[in-house]
Amino acid sequence: MMLVAKVAVVTGASRGLGRILAIMLADAGARVALLARPSTELAAVEAEIGPGRSVAVACDVADPASVNEAIARVADLFGGIDILINNAAIYSLGTIETISDADIRDQLAIDLAGPIYCARAVIPHLRARGGGDIINLSSESVRMPFPYLGVYAAAKAGVEVFSQALQAEVREDRIRVSVLRSGRMAHTDGQRNWDPATQRAFFAAIEKSGHAALGGNAAAATASMARAVIAVLQLPRDLQAELLEVHAF
Length: 249
Prior knowledge:
The protein is an alpha/beta fold and about 250 residues long. It is about 45% helix and about 15% strand. The chain is built from eight helices and seven strands; from the N terminus they run E-H-E-H-E-H-E-H-E-H-E-H-H-H-E. The chain has helices at about 15-25, 40-50, 65-80, 100-130, 150-170, 195-210, 210-215, 220-235; strands spanning about 5-10, 30-35, 55-60, 85, 130-140, 175-180, 245. Strands 3-2-1-4-5-6-7 form a seven-stranded parallel β-sheet, with helices on both faces. Helix 3 packs parallel to helix 4 (about 100-130). The chain starts with 6 loop residues before the first strand and ends with a strand.
C-alpha cells in the first residue's frame, strides 16, 4: 500500500493496460481517476474498483477543452492530483503513401497531442502538492520503426522528446517525468479495427524487412507491464527513471 493517499489519473483506463493499471493503483492504496471516452467498459472498471476509490471521468484526450474540464473535475473531487499516467493511444495500420488523412490526424492528436494536453493541465495540481509524477507510455517502435506503423512510431518519438523538454521545465517543482518504452504486450485490443487485407500486407512486409525477427515473438503480460509502471512510481524521491525500456524476457 505504498501509494496510500495518492491521487492518480490514468488515461485510456477503460481497457487494456490502462484498465489493469487503474486496478493495481487502487490495490496499492491510490484513489484513481479513470479517463476515457464514455463506454460500458469504463463504467465496469469503476464498478470493479469500487466507490470512493475511483471515479470514471469522460474525456477525449485529443480535445484540450475536454482534458481541462476532466482534470479540473478530478482535482475538485479528490482534492488534488499526484500522478498522471498518459496511457491512451491508438495505432492505425497503413503505409505512409496510403494512410488516410483521418488516421494521421487521429494518431497525432491522441498519441502525441493528448499527453501534452494532459500534462499541461495537471502540472499546477502536481506543483500544489509539492511534486508528483508524470509517466508517459512509449513504444519500442521508436527504436525500431515498423513499416505500416510509421505515424504511430513518429508520434511516440515525439512523446519521448516532449518528455525530456518537460522534465527540464518542471524539475524545480519536484515533478518527475518518466518514459516507459514498452515492448509488445499480450491481450491488447489495438488491432481490433485493422482491415484484414492491410493486416496481411503488414505481416508480409515485416517478414520481408526483418522487423518480425527483430521484434521477436514473445509478448509481455499486460499485468507485468503495469507492475513496471507502478515500480517507477515507487522509486525513492531522489531517483528517477527517465527512460525505461521494458519487454518480454
